[in-house]
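hiii, so i know i said id send this last week but things got crazy w the move. better late than never?? heres the sequnce for the chain we talked about at the cafe, plus the structure i predicted for it. fair warning i was half asleep when i ran it
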Amino acid sequence: MRHTVCKAAVRGSNAASWNHARPLPAFYSVAAKGADPANKSTAKAALTVKALFEEFERLHIAPKLKPNTTASYRSAFQVHIDPIVGRKRAADVQPADLLRYQAKLDGHRASANRVLAVVSAMYSWAGEHAFIAEGTNPAAKVTRFANKKRERPLSLEELESLGAALTEGENVGIPCARSEQKGPSTHRRQKIVASSSTENLPGRFVS
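okay and structure toks below
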């Protein structure tokens, strides 16, 4: 009996040290919480937004997009998306979460639109590759801000061209475009009017 207890104690201490040195895989973590790790729907439901973006970046963004685009996606996630919904389960993010954050970025509409674009791309990709249920995209129902027309100062060449055109207009004049006349010319119309007026004069006889 004593020998059996000692073995059990040794096994327990070894297991404890092994667990301390090497974290349990996610498979065992899910099982420890009482869920069935073989159930794919359970795995999808447990996936956080941060974990989803890491897969999105590793499998799609980094290997398939340009470096500047990759940096833009990563910045949008780190600065905007992760602080508001990074710890949420991807399946639990609602359009209202994005709408509330969009309202906070009213003064930075380009950034707000970029955040929605990244979230939408991530969820669309995840749905197509079965990381989450297909059709789950909270950004799809959020209307983006309208792009404002940007004003810019004229370049030196454009200013010179504008100045030359204005000078020519003052000195020479700006030619007017002639409209096409479908009827008889002005001179012809005047002759017709004069002729008809003469025919109606009193004392004129027609032979």
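btw The chain has a mean pLDDT of 75. thought thatd interest u
miss u guys!!
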